[in-house]
């Protein structure tokens, strides 16, 4: 799949900037979640839920978060909340568009384009195994864990 070769700058679990492509994770299952913006209430709650369940999640898959925010913003977000997983910066929406999660949204009657909160489980070959689109933050990590544990 072409999305496997899209290269994005990211922050690793130690806060070090590095270039990533999903092809690097072939041979491992990946939990790839797309979120709209660092340090907003829903995105912070979602990230902290993934952080708090990190050990349970990573026994099944590598956790990676993606938003259009800058590396500087990601680094601040990661440090501020003690995030223990990779964050990728997708300011040009390459990966977001490849997964069909960049689209029109509406808030207070105003239309704009942005990330549609979504989560994907990629199997070891890189193919999409499971997807959740238009995710509601509350209870989402529990849904993902339930799915991963049922497939173990």
Spell out the key features of this protein.
152 residues, alpha+beta, Glutaredoxin, seven-stranded mixed beta sheet, two-stranded antiparallel ribbon, 5 helices
The major sheet is characterized as: 7 strands, mixed
- Share in helix: 25-40%
H and E order: EEEHHEHEHEEEEH
The count of β-strands is 9
Q: What is the topology, as strand order, of the major beta sheet?
A: 2-1-5-4-3-8-9
Q: What is the CATH superfamily label?
A: Glutaredoxin
What is the helix tally?
5
General form: globular
Which whole number gives the mean pLDDT? 94
CATH architecture: 3-Layer(aba) Sandwich
N/C terminus separation = 25 Å
Number of domains: 1
**How big a fraction of the residues is strand?**
25-35%
What name does the CATH topology carry? Glutaredoxin
- Counting helices, strands and paired strands, the structural category is alpha+beta
Residue stretches low in confidence (pLDDT < 50, at least 5 long) are none
Provide the gyration radius in Å.
14 Å
Describe the structure in your own words.
The model has no long low-confidence stretch (mean pLDDT 94). The protein has a single domain (2-137), classed as Glutaredoxin. 30% of the residues lie in helices and 32% in strands. The longest helix has 12 residues, at 41-52. Strands 2-1-5-4-3-8-9 form a 7-stranded mixed beta sheet. The chain has a two-stranded antiparallel sheet with strand order 6-7. With 152 residues, it is of the alpha+beta class. The two termini are 25 Å apart. It is globular, with a radius of gyration of 14 Å. The relative contact order is 0.21.
């Amino acid at each position: 799949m072409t999305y496997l070769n899209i290269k994005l700058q990211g922050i690793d679990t130690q806060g070090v900037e590095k270039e990533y492509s999903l092809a690097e994770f072939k041979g491992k299952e990946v939990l790839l979640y797309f979120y709209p913006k660092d340090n907003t209430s829903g995105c912070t709650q979602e990230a902290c839920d993934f952080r708090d369940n990190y050990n349970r999640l990573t026994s099944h898959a590598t956790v990676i978060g993606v938003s259009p925010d800058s590396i500087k913003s990601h680094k601040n977000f990661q440090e501020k909340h003690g995030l223990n997983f990779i964050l990728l910066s997708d300011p040009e929406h390459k990966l977001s568009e490849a997964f069909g999660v960049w689209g029109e949204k509406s808030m207070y009657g105003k239309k704009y384009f942005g990330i549609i909160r979504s989560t994907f489980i990629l199997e070891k070959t890189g193919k999409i195994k499971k997807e959740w689109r238009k995710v509601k933050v509350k209870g989402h990590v529990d849904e993902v864990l339930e799915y991963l544990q049922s497939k173990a």
